[in-house]
Design brief:
Order of helices and strands: HHHH
Structural class: mainly alpha
Strand content: under 5%
Distance between the termini: 70 Å
Shape: elongated
Radius of gyration: 21 Å
Number of strands: 0
Helix content: over 70%
Length: 85
Amino acid sequence: MSPEIIGGIGIGLMLLLFAMGMPIAFAMALAGVVGYAYIVSPSVAFSLLPRDIFEQFASYPLSVIPMFVMMGCYAFASGIGKKTI
């Protein structure tokens, strides 16, 4: 089976999982892992999954955004952002 057909089946699987009420992130991950396991091999797909999850959580932009929000909360609580006339 060609990768294009497998991709189409994966999109159909994702839409089916969306309609069943599965969260988007899990539906996309499941369809991706199943498709990759079919194209390459299941052992490679299952070893790639935890490494990809770790890389996403260890990325610099994802660590900066919560710190920026926390800084805004501290600025608000301390009164730095109050308007003085």
